[in-house]
Specification:
The protein is an alpha+beta fold and about 260 residues long. It contains eight helices and ten strands. The chain has a single domain, classed as Aminoglycoside 3'-phosphotransferase, Chain: A, domain 2.
Amino acid sequence: MDEIEIVVAHRQRTTLRVGDLFLKVDAHPTRTAVEVRAMALAPVPTPTVVWHQPPVLAIAAVPGRALGVLGEPSPASSAAWAATGAAVRRLHDAPLPPWPGVALDDVRAELDRECAWLLEHAVLPADVIGLNRDIAEAALRPRPPTFVHGDLQLTHVFVEGDEVVGVIDWSEAGPGDPMADLATLTLGHEERLDDLLDGYGPGADRDVIRAWWSLRSLVASRWLIEHGFDPDAPGCELDVLRARAREAGDGRQGGTR
């Protein structure tokens, strides 16, 4: 080992890589505890827990490479995306974990709060925020919960060839909306949705997935800004919101002709 790599560092969490070991230090120790429990229950490949002493979790590196990065084309094959869909389906079909998920009313309240902040700080034009808030409403429907990852970004799925070899960062796992996982994976990568659903199988609702693209982008933008990330980078959250608003606006104009 020649050096320590800082993988991510912000006020809520710092992750360090020391050789083949990742050390995660979380401001909320319960999140690392959830991560350990979720990885033990999930029927998909997960990192090996080396040791856990809150607030620090030590896990082994997983093989392969990430499915992609937000804002850049995914280098993974269609077959790898389909394999990811099949792995996510196994997770969603697994028994629910024995801790509560996020209540639908809390999701709605957070969405309204974040939309108000985006408007107050003029992060985007009011019509873009309003159109996306309307789109997001479709995600706020009552639904039976499933075992979800909760933060299934494509950087959290590792593949080797056409096989999923590791899924990382389980601190948000719990009972939730399966369409949210599918939406998070394809946020900014709409062109990969068909490949993902080929592996996932029946039951996916494309309209709800699209609603979650809007909802997640609206809710995440302030956090990203306040923690030193750029949601306005090409292909990222603010681009997604603009694209969704354009599509919604074009649809409304088409309906009046």
